Amino acid sequence: MNFSKIKTILLASMVTLMAASMVLLPEKSFEASVRGLNMWWEIVFPSLFPFFVLSELLIGFGVVKFMGVLLEPLMRPLFRVPGVGGFAWAMGMASGFPAGAKITARLRQEGHLTRDEAERLVSFTNCSSPLFIFGAVSVGFFHNPKLGFLLALTHYLGNFSVGIIMRNFGQKPSSKEKKANKRPLFAEALSALHQTRLKNKKPIGKLVGDAVISSINTLLMIGGFIILFSVINKLLFHMHITAFLARLIEGVLSIFQLPATLSMPAIAGIFEITLGSQMTSQAPEATLMQQVIMASFILGFSGFSVQAQVASILAQTDIRFRPFFNARILHGFLSGFFTFLFWKPFEQRLLSSHSMSVPAFLQKHDIWWENMLLWLKQYGPLFTIFMLLVCIAVYVQTMGAKN
């Protein structure tokens, strides 16, 4: 029996097992589905939708091309990607998963990137948003807003390091690529902006409508993966598969001097980032440093749920998923290492009871990350429903115009 047949039998068995477990545990499956749905329409949709629409419009109007020409001297030497990669990098950090993959795939479809450049770019433009790190993890799970500073520092530093390491991925720099390191003129950027806008012959109304429909289609796909992996994680736990996998990695954790109680949160985080981070913050017999190191790894690895979202987006192009997956493993270990490296100075400066030097954005009287998260939970569902209705109206109008 060859590997292909074994793979077919294995996949069929896994799907059958999941279907049977959903029939046997309908209440648990329903609870997990509701949890995933609430996360999507309260937080994910309202926080990502504006960024997705804005990125589509910026690409259509040529602003991204304008930024790309100006950022060429920075992005090309550092990461061996065109300057337009700077836009994907910035939007990915600001809005979180999987905005970087969405924008990278769009740039590849527009012909701004080669396949190797797109695979290098997508490897370091997908990261957690500051809202999730400060609001959900540090405040919501650890109940300590100061930890958000360390988690964000190590997460984004790990992401930057992945970009530097992945610059050696793919073909060697060509003579054209080396020549592109010369500093471009501002006039060239304006010319690129104008030429890109002229090539896009869509009216403004059509461009906005397409941006809304494309963004909502992507977010619906993301919501499906969030709900699916929420159910899978719950079923794996109740079928004791999570506990079995946890025992297998206890030896790996001991190598890094981490307690066995972090094995269950690690497995949960490998599948789904939010549940893994929450379980990590509640792990017994683990010091705060050990909990934060594991949380950093989970944030860097991103979880199979996010990776499945990215794989679905990349499948629309010729960008391969494997470099992205390898980069996530690297990002997880680098983030954990940087957390261990910076823990002592961070503890002395911010966590010590004698420390008085607390950054203004971390002071208790002005935790705006937490306020933003609470605002999304309160008004996010209304925004989601409203934008879905707008999308339906735009889609009906578009189909009517075609007919």
From TrEMBL:
The keyword Transcription does not apply. It comes from the Bacteria. NCBIfam families: spore_ylbJ. Keywords: Membrane, Transmembrane, Transmembrane helix. The lineage of its organism: Bacteria, Bacillati, Bacillota, Bacilli, Bacillales. The keyword tRNA-binding does not apply. Residues 44-138, 219-315 form the Nucleoside transporter/FeoB GTPase Gate domain. The chain crosses the membrane at residues 6-25, 79-100, 121-142, 148-169, 207-229, 262-280, 292-315, 327-346, 378-396. This is Sporulation integral membrane protein YlbJ. InterPro entries: Gate_dom, Spore_IM_YlbJ. Coiled coil: none annotated. Pfam families: Gate.
